[in-house]
Amino acid sequence: MRFHLVRDRTITFGVLAVAACGLVITACASQDSPGAASSATSSAATTTSPSSPSAAGVDACATSRLKISLTNTGALAGQAGGYLKFTNSSGTPCRMSGWPAVIALKATGQATRLRHLQSSMFGAWHYTAPPPVLTLQPGDSAYAIVAADDRPAGDNSRCPAPYARLRVSPPGDSGHVVISAWLPGAATYLPACPSVTGSPTAGTSTMTTLASLPH
Q1: Alpha carbon distance 89, 181 (integer Å)
Q2: Rounded to a whole number, what is the distance in angstroms from the first to the last CA of the chain?
């Protein structure tokens, strides 16, 4: 199945009809975070099954071959977040599948590994097994949602200090880059609000295409 990736642009989330959730939601304006790289893509990324011979013949996308940024930020339905964008900046194709590894860092240096989301109101995304394999030609991009609850839960009157930075690795690679956790569309850093049980709510989706997400 072939998806066409579109050029990034500053976007304004209006009232979105999210068919998967049956909700009408209002989101915030969005733009790339300060200092984040932005590159346009016009070619198509190919989505295949993990057992596909074409996917097996392509090397996994290493951090050194990628430009990683945070885009399409905003807040909706009790969550704030954005899309992690992984652009193939090399001259050869590479493949991506599964969850990226993301460590959220507070200004104090405290680190929290983001959980693997099974679904997210932000981006109206639901996990489907097995995760698709995305083949990125040079200049193509793949995306993963990063989102967290932005409201206190239970008897809490406020949330802890938010995360200031994100340490991001593509699936299966030990390399990483550190980017700002600032969400321009929500006018805040990625929230660190816990659930009613006290566990972190911040998490990431599997890799997907921009065409499969609201944008």
Answers
A1: 22
A2: 20
Q: Which residues 6+ apart lie within 8 Å of 65 measured at CB? A: 88, 89, 90, 94
Q: What is the DSSP letter of 55?
A: H
Residue 117 phi/psi, 5-degree rounding, is -70, 145
Contact (CB, 8 A) for 83 and 145: yes
User: Residue 195: CA atoms inside 13 Å, Cβ hemisphere, count?
Assistant: 7
Q: Say if CB 97 and CB 131 are below 8 A apart.
A: yes
- Whether omega for the bond prior to residue 130 falls within 30 degrees of 0, making it cis, is yes
Domain count across the chain: 1
* CA–CA separation, 130 and 67 (whole Å): 26
Query: What's phi and psi for 194, nearest 5 deg?
Result: -85, 170
Q: How far apart are CA 140 and CA 16, in angstroms?
A: 26
Domain, as residue range, for 189: 2-212
pTM, whole model, 2 decimals?
0.77
pLDDT in tens, the chain (215 residues): 333 333 343 333 333 333 333 333 333 333 343 333 333 333 446 666 444 545 568 999 999 999 999 999 999 889 999 999 999 999 999 999 999 999 999 999 999 999 999 988 888 888 989 999 999 999 999 999 999 999 998 887 899 999 999 999 999 999 999 999 999 999 999 999 999 999 999 999 999 999 999 88
Residue 53: phi and psi, rounded to 5, are -60, -35
